[in-house]
Structure formats: structure tokens, C-alpha cells
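Bump. Still looking for AGE family epimerase/isomerase C-alpha cells.
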Amino acid sequence: MAHQYQANIETFKDWLRNDVFPLWSTKGIDRDSGGFVESLSFDGKPMDVPRRAMVQSRQIYSFLTGAKMDCCRTDLAFEAIHRGTGYMIDKFSLPSGAFSYSVNPDGTPKILNPDLYTQAFALFGLAQAYSVEARPVYKERAKQLVKYLRKERTVPGGGFTELDEKGNVSFKSNPHMHMFESAVAWMQVDRNDQDWKDLGKELVDLALNKFIDPQSQVLGEYFDSNWNHLRENGRFIYEPGHQYEWAWLMSLYEELTGKDLKSVRHQLFLLAEKHGVSKTRKVVFDEMWSDYTPKTQTSRFWPQCERIKAACRLGTEVSTGQEQYAQAADDALNTLTKFFKTPLEGTWYDMASETDTFNGTSAKASSLYHIINAMEEYANLRGKLAGV
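Sorry for the wait, here they are.
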């Protein structure tokens, strides 16, 4: 008898193959100016809005993963990756070695700010492109970026500064999580280079020693310059979606290095499960306080994706209680499908309200990175978990 998860896998692969990639490989790529568009309206038209470097990077990953899943033609995917990487390097590179935040649709500069989040994803996109074709220019550009960060953005206690458009400095865990993701990606495709190993170790150590609060065991979002949690009435903010994401990334890092992170990873996952998911609505909350109470009752789509990934991968490691992980993955997948009920097949809503209603008139290209990453993990790993 076929299990429900097998039907889920086929349904989503069909959706990617028949709706998502036909749409985003045509309307989602600018054949004239180059690069990937920022978003599509629900009538299938590219939005006339600035394009972020982060979107270029994420779409490089999305098309690569789509090809791996046999949901996008390999020749089409590789052409998109090649063009998108060239566009990112050409249009977003700054003399410092950093990448700018955004350009106008015609490719002219828009926001030059080299925010850390953008740098993390530029490094990630270059790793994905390098895995397709090991061009020296991709690695050289990645090295220039790391050199810039080491020279200009280093924090004495480890990690890097975040910058806004006005030059204000802040200290956040989220861009470091994506920098850790990019370090892991480079470690996977360029295994002998010590720079990637050093970057990965620095970032995982920062998470273990500073980001995770010893008392509550949750991983905070906002810090002072000494990596102390910024608190309000004794509490700090954390995001269940990021708990899942860190847990998943640490599992990849453990596979590469052998560093034992199992207890930390499962603790992050189980705390997110216990406190960060509505038991009635079965959605992951966006933000929580460190006393485990919800700060917001809204739910963006992406934490559901991170719950799927973490549940599938971490669930394969436990000998008892796999059913809990399987159920979490299935519940998150069922919740995620609600975000896809838009006027245009192959698109998605970004956020569910407190009453599980959706609004919006366009879909962000940046979302596909989360969706397809979750789909790939579910397709590859869900069958290894006990439970129907």
C-alpha cells in the first residue's frame, strides 16, 4: 500500500515540473537585461521593482535543485545559472569586494549598501555556480568577498557587523546563519580549502557560545556588540523558523566535519516543536519571546519549509520516536500547501494572518529557494522515517 507521503512527493514534483519552472524560467528571467526578476504578479507579469542580489543567488540555487530533482530541464537550468551568476557579479560587485543590495530593472545601481545578509547569499550563490562549473572566477570572487568581510566587518568577539543604508551598525544572528550556510556550501564543493573550514568553524562556535542562550536554550536574533542578547523586560526575541534552520545546517556541518552537534540540534528542533507551533492551526509562529510565549501569531510560509527540512533530516537519526518527526514534516507540508492557493499556478502567498487568511497580488522569486529546499529534503528523506 502506498503511503500518503509518496503521494505528497509526486504531487509536489508535478507542481514544480508543470507549473513552477515553466513559469519562472520564462517570466522569471529577464532575457533582455539579464538576471532573475524580483517578483511576478498573479497575472504572470514581472513586477517593475528593484532587484536584490539575494534573489539572484537564491534563484541560482533553485534552478540547480530543480534540475537535481528532475523538475527542470538540465540545459535550461544551467543556462539560467550561468546567466544569473554573470549578472550578479557584473551588476552587484563593489570595488571593496562586497556586493550591493539592489539594482534597478535596467541594471543600474539602486541601493549600494553592502548589508551582511546580501554578502552571505552572494557567497552562497557563487558556491552553487561553482558546483555546476568550477570556474576560477567564481572562487576568486568569493575569496574577494571573504577578504572584504575579514578586513572591514570583523567583530572582536567573532562574526561580522550588519549595516543599514544609513551606515548604522547592528549585530544579528540571521545573516550569520546564512553565512554559515554559504561556508557549508563551499565546504561541500571545495573540500580542501582551509578558508571555508575556518569560516564554518568560526560561525558554528559563535552560535554555540553566544547565539544560544544557556538558560532558555533558544537561539536569539538580536545582540549588542559583545554578542549579549538584546532584552526587553528581561526577554529576548527568537524565531522558531531559525531554530529549525540552524538545526538543519548544523547537521550538514556535522556530516562534513564529524563535530558532534546532535544534542544541540535536536534541542533546537524540539523546543521549536514544543513552543513555536500552534497546536490547533499547525503553523509555525514567526516570532517568540525567550519565555516561550508568542510575540506574533502571524506565520510566513518559510518557517513551514524549515520545519519540513529539519524534521526529515533529524528524524533519520533517532531510533525511537521517529513518528514525531514524520508527523511534524507532514503537518508542515500540509500547512505549506495553503500558501500555494493563489490565482496563478506556480506562485505563492508570503504570509498567513492570525486567522489563516492570505492576501497579496504578487509572488516573490526569493521564496522558491525555501520551497524547493524543503521539497528536496522531503522527497529524499521522508521515506526513511517511521509512520504513515
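The first strand starts at residue 39 and ends at 41.

Edit: fixed formatting.
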